[in-house]
Structure formats: C-alpha cells, structure tokens
From TrEMBL:
Family listed: Belongs to the BolA/IbaG family.
UniProt xrefs under SUPFAM superfamilies: BolA-like (SSF82657)
GO biological process: iron-sulfur cluster assembly
Pfam families assigned: BolA (PF01722)
Family annotation (InterPro entries): BolA, BolA-like_sf
Source species of the chain: Caenimonas sedimenti
Signal peptide (from-to): none
Name recorded for this polypeptide: BolA family transcriptional regulator
Amino acid sequence: MTTGITAEALRARLAELLAPSQLEVIDESAAHAGHAGAAPGGGTHFRVRIASPRFAGLSPVARHRLVYDSLRDFLERGLHALAIETL
C-alpha cells in the first residue's frame, strides 16, 4: 500500500501557497524502506529545498513552520518525514 503522496503533489502545493523563487522536492522514500514510517511503494520521506519571498524577515524556525503548515494535510495522510532546507 502506498500513501499516494508524490513529489509533484508536494511541489504543486508549495508553488500554490508559497510562490517560491526556487523549489526542489525529492522523494527519498526508497532510501528508507524498512524503516519506521516507511510504506511499501513510497510516498513517505521527502526533502524540500525552497526559497520564497514569503520567508523575508522570518526566522529559520518560522520558515520551516510555514512549509509544514502548507503541507499539513499530507502529513495527516502518511507523509512521515520531511527534511526542509530553506534558502
């Protein structure tokens, strides 16, 4: 069973809500097969590299919170791990 979560779905949501100037979403699920939270078929572990004008004046913690809040429903649907690099 897979979560149905894809890098493209995450990319589309972040593009819609944060209007990034730079965005990269990498599905790292295969590297975590057999680990806690990993679902067969993937869609559980992602890395996001993002720069956005919405980050101006925000602390690193506030930037990460903004990304997490943008993807909250994905987290509720089975996104287990999200590595965030704000640029």
